[in-house]
Amino acid sequence: MEKNYVIGVDYGTDSARAILVDAGDGSVVAARTEAYPRWAEGRYSDAASDRFRQHPKDYLEVLETVLKDVAGKCPRPQRIVGISVDTTASTPCLTDENLTPLSLTPGFEEDPDAMFVLWKDHTGMAESREINAICDGEKLPYTCHSGYSYSAENFWSKVLHIFRTNPRVAEKAWSAIECCDFVTASLTGCHSLEELKPGHCCIGAKWMWAEEWGGYPPASFLDRLDPRLKGLHLPEKNYGCHEQAGTLCPEWAAKLGLGTDVVVGAGNVDSYSGAVGGGVRHRTIVMNLGTSSCYMAVMPKEKFGDRIIDGLFAQVDGSILPGQVGFEVGLSAFGDAYAWVKKLVSWPLRQLAERQPELKGALKAAEDRLIADLSEAAAQLPQREDAPLATDYLNGRRSPFCDNSLTGTLAGLKLGTTAPELFRALVEATAFATKAVMDHLKAGGVEIDRYVAVGGVAQKSPLVMQMLSDVLEAPISVSASKDSCALGAAIHAAVVAGLYPTVEAAEEALCPPIATTYTPVPSAILRARYRKYLALTGLDEKLA
C-alpha cells in the first residue's frame, strides 16, 4: 500500500513552521521554520502602547518558503494529499471586497491599522470594556462564550478601536478576515466572500458568533458601538477543521510542484490545533506552553449540556473536537514573562555592545545563556515562604475572569534579593495562575484526570515543568512532538483528505508517545505561597 503524506502549517507569534507528515504513522519526514522578516525587525509594533501588528507579506513570504522546503523533501510529492493551517487568534485584518488585506492595496502599505492585528495587541481595551458594560448592564448574551468578559484580544474590540481611531481605514474597509482564513484563502485562490469557508473555531471563540442568537450579534447591537460595524460584510457560515475549505489553486500548485487535487482544510487557531496534536480528549487537558499559555479541554456535549462557565476565555461547541464542548483558558504572558526578565537583565550587555562593538560576540553569547543560567540558579534555591512573590499579569489576565488592564507586580523585595529569586518568583506566578485556572475549570464541572504539555517551554524548561507539577500536585506528561500545533494541523489535513473517519481516530494513529513525565513533590510552603498569590491578585474572593 502506497504511503500518503499531509502537511501541517503553524503560524506562531514570531515565525511559521511547516511539517511533512507520514499520514500512516505520524512520523515527521521534513520540517521548516521561518521567521517573519518585518516582524523580526520590530516594524509596525509599539509594545509601550500595546500595539502589535504584522504585515500580510510576512505571512505570504514565509508560507512559500516553508511549503516549498517540506514539499521538496517529500519522497513522492504526488502522494501529498492534504494541507491544513493554524494561526494565532484573534489576529484579524480589514479587507477590500476581494478579501485583500488593506495593507496590500495602494495607499495603505505602511499603515499598521491596515495590517493584521496580532492576538496580543491590546489597543482595544477601552472598546472591550464598553462591549462588556453594555452586555452586563442589559443582560445581553453575546459575551457568554467568552466567559461574560469579552477580551481586547478578540475581534470586535480590535476592529472597533481601528474604526474609531483611523477614519481613513474605516472608510475603505469592506470586510475582515482572520489570519487562518487568509492563509487558507490564499492557498485555495479564494477572492470572494461567497466562496470563503472560514474556520468555526476562531469565529465561534473570538467573533461573538453563536447559533443561539442566529450568528453574529444583531445590527442593533453593533450600531450602538459604531454604525460602521454593521456595514462590514462577514461570512454567514463557518466550518469545522475536519471540513474542506477547497483545493490547492493552480498558482500555488505550480509554486509547490503539487496537484490541484490537494485538499486544504478550514483554518484553525494555533492552541486548538495544538490540543489535537497533543491528543486532547475527555478528561485529558492539553497545556500549550509558549509565548502565552492556552489550556484546552473538552467535555461530551451530552454530558455537559448547555451550561456556561463564567470567567473562561472561550467555551464553544465543536471548537476543538466535533460533538464536544471546547474550553479555552490560559495566561496572556507565559514565555513572554520569562523573556521580559531576559530583556531586563541583558540591557546593560546590549548597551555595552553598542559602545564596544568588539564585544558583541561574547555579550551575545552571554545573553543567550541568561535564561538557562537563571533557571539553573533558581532551581537550586531553597523554598521560603517569605521569598519574593510575583503576579504574572505582564500582558493582563486572560483567565479566570479576563482583565486586560491588569499589570504584573513584585512583592517582598529586599536589598538582598537576587536575579534568580526574581526569576523563580515569576515562574511560580505562572504556575500559581495555572492552578487558579485549573481549579476554576474543575469547579465548573470540567473533568480533568490527565495533563499533557506541548510547546517550546514544555520541551526546554525542566524548572517550569517541575514547578507546574508541584503546584498542581499532579503528574504532567510532555509530548514527544516538537511541533504539536503543526501536527494538529496535519491531523486535520489527514481527516479532510479522507484518510481517517474522525479527528479522534487520526489522533490515535498520528500523535507521538509521551517523552517524559514530571512527578509532583507536594510542598506546604508552595501551598502557603499560593494562598498569598490568590490574595495578592484578588482571586481569593472571585474563586471563593
Ends distance: 58 Å
Q: Compute the gyration radius: what is it?
A: 23 Å
Query: Main sheet?
Result: 7 strands, mixed
CATH H-level superfamily title of the largest domain = ATPase, nucleotide binding domain
> Would you tell me the overall average pLDDT?
96
Shape: globular
Number of domains: 2
- E-strand count: 20
Task: Determine the strand fraction and express it as a percent band.
Answer: 15-25%
The CATH architecture of the largest domain can be given as: 2-Layer Sandwich
CATH C-level category of the largest domain = Alpha Beta
CATH topology of the largest domain: Nucleotidyltransferase, domain 5
Which ranges are low-confidence, i.e. pLDDT below 50, for 5 or more consecutive residues?
none
Structural class: alpha/beta
Residues in helices, as a percent range:
25-40%
List keywords for this structure.
544 residues; alpha/beta; Nucleotidyltransferase, domain 5; 2 domains; seven-stranded mixed sheet; 21 helices; 20 strands; globular
In brief:
39% of the residues lie in helices and 19% in strands. A hairpin with a 3-residue loop joins strand 1 and strand 2 (15-22).
Describe this structure as you would to a colleague.
By secondary structure, the chain is α/β, with parallel strands linked by helices. The chain has 21 helices and 20 strands. The strands form 5 sheets. Strands 1, 2, 3, 5, 9, 10 and 11 form a 7-stranded mixed β-sheet that branches. β1 and β2 form a beta hairpin. The mean pLDDT is 96.
Topology:
Layout: E1 5-11, E2 15-22, E3 28-35, H1 37-40, E4 53-54, H2 56-72, E5 80-87, E6 92-95, E7 116-117, H3 125-137, H4 155-165, H5 167-172, E8 175-178, H6 179-188, H7 200-206, H8 219-225, E9 244-247, H9 250-256, E10 263-265, E11 268-269, H10 270-277, E12 283-289, E13 293-300, H11 301-304, E14 314-317, E15 324-331, H12 335-355, H13 360-368, H14 370-379, E16 389-391, E17 409-411, H15 419-443, E18 448-454, H16 456-460, H17 462-472, E19 476-479, H18 484-496, H19 503-510, E20 514-518, H20 524-537, H21 539-542
Parallel strand pairs: 1-5, 5-10, 5-11, 12-18, 18-19
Antiparallel strand pairs: 1-2, 2-3, 4-7, 6-8, 9-10, 12-13, 13-15, 14-15, 16-17, 19-20
